[in-house]
Amino acid sequence: MKLWVKITLGIVLLLAAGLLFAGNYFYNYAVVPSEKDFLENDTPGTAKVEESEAQKWFQAKENRSNWTITSKDGLKLSAIYLPAEKTSDRTILLAHGYMGDAETMTNYAKMFHDMGYNVLVPDARGHGKSEGDYIGFGWPERKDYVQWIDKVLETNGKSEEIVLYGISMGAATVMMTSGEKLPENVKAIIEDCGYSSVNDELTYQLDDMFNLPPFPLMQVTSFITKIRAGYFFGEASSVEQLKKNTRPMLFIHGDADKFVPFEMLDKVYSATQGPKEKYVVHGAEHAKAYNVDPEKYQEVVKNFLDRYVH
Predict the structure, then answer these.
(1) How far apart are CA 138 and CA 171, in angstroms?
(2) pLDDT on residue 48
(3) How close are the terminal C-alpha atoms of the chain, in Å?
(4) Measuring CA to CA, which residue among 163, 181, 150 is closest to residue 249?
(5) Cβ atoms within 10 Å, residue 203
(6) If residue 288 lies in a helix (H) or strand (E), which one and from where to where?
(7) Which of 13, 81, 84, 99 is most buried as measured by Cβ atoms within 10 A of its Cβ?
(8) How far apart are CA 260 and CA 168, in angstroms?
(9) pTM of the prediction?
(10) Cα dihedral across residues 61, 108, 233, 256: positive or negative
(11) DSSP states of 177-234 as a string?
(12) pLDDT class for 126, splitting at 50, 70, 90?
């Protein structure tokens, strides 16, 4: 073998090894559940804050119970269920953010509970008490939420009216769920600061945090994710799922969001074919729309739901 061929082959092998190393590093950095130093206060449940009144209320509810299901791929998934104060045939499913869990959704659980809803708050796979060794960014979780919907109907009755609500990664989860075959019981969906697709979000983060272009690292990491977690990044698109949705949707986003960029709001809002409303919260950073003006947030949400849930 000629020397130049050996040198070329060696360079190719070194590049391939480097890309595999980098792809595995990025997979562990983004997809494996672990403490994330880059989150700081960006997503619900990642900041260490003093116990709020809502948290005390959520943890002290004497009639809260734990629900479980087994996912289609064999994971035991956990959720917290809070029945309404008065008997109700309305249930809301909440979806938490990246590296959060059910216990981080206290403000939203109390908001909907105060509106008279039964509240079900699952831990996403790989989070909280649910099994799993990877983060699905909403894609495998969409199938889990179909199962949670079935669990609500099985437990509370076939006449139950159901609403889906999610924030950050949870918002992407409910948007991705919207494109599945859902029962008529699902009456409305609310998303707060969800991303247009996993490719879009991770490409943005790759540039924002590392100043790196997406090619070829995204493709390599996506391939590794397919092997280790069962999905390609390119599959996980809120936009493509929303194109199949006909249910009413409320889209919420802060215009100061630098984690899931505000520009993604127009992508997801334009994609859905059903009745839709948009609520832009001026000055709100990522997942902080509620904090900016809780009363206004609750008013917008309640008015939206009053139009579609009886």
Answers:
(1) 8
(2) 46
(3) 77
(4) 163
(5) 18
(6) none
(7) 99
(8) 8
(9) 0.93
(10) negative
(11) HTTS---TTEEEEEEES--SBHHHHHHHHHHHHH---STTHHHHHHHHHHHHHS--GG
(12) very high
